[in-house]
Amino acid sequence: MHLFHDLGIQAGNNLQQERDYYTKTADIILLLLSRHFISDNDSYDILQKAVTRFKSNEASVFQIILTPIYVECLPNIVQLPKLPKNPTSQQTRDQRFKKVAEELHKLLEDKQ
């Protein structure tokens, strides 16, 4: 397993080329979605490429909602953590990330 994120890009490497490479070759893509991610042109481009790879069954893609956003543009992509339609209690960030890890682990085990 190889983890990629923008902070892992070595000085002097081309950011766009690195993003493209990993978006095109990843088996699993976790989209950490926030209003900042959606509003950034480069990030939105990554999102579109991930959706294309998901629709063609080339990669497993999961959306992890970090802040409230409109995500209807991502049909059929698994949203983590799974939240009830009308949540009655607020979970802490740590509780939500724990739930994301548990749900992702189960989904990946089921794929094997």
Describe the protein's architecture and organization:
By secondary structure, the chain is an alpha/beta fold. It has a single domain (6-111), classed as 3-Layer(aba) Sandwich (Rossmann fold). It is built from four helices and three strands. It has helices spanning 15-25, 35-39, 41-55, 93-111; strands at 28-33, 60-65, 78-80. It has a three-stranded parallel beta sheet, sandwiched between helices. Helix 1 packs parallel to helix 3. The longest helix has 19 residues, at 93-111. The protein is globular. The relative contact order is 0.12.
From the structure above, extract its key features.
112 residues, alpha/beta, Rossmann fold, 3-stranded parallel β-sheet, 13% strand
Shape: globular
The CATH architecture is 3-Layer(aba) Sandwich
Reading the helices and strands in chain order gives HEHHEEH
> What can be said about the biggest beta sheet?
3 strands, parallel
Strand order of the largest sheet: 1-2-3
Radius of gyration: 15 Å
Low-confidence stretches: none
Could you estimate the helical fraction of the residues in percent? 40-55%
What is the rounded distance between the termini?
Answer: 15 Å
Count of separate DSSP helical elements: 4
β-strand percent reads 5-15%
Whole-number average pLDDT? Answer: 78
Given helix and strand content, the structural type is alpha/beta
How many β strands by DSSP?
3
User: What's the domain count?
Assistant: 1
The CATH topology is Rossmann fold
Please give the CATH class.
Alpha Beta
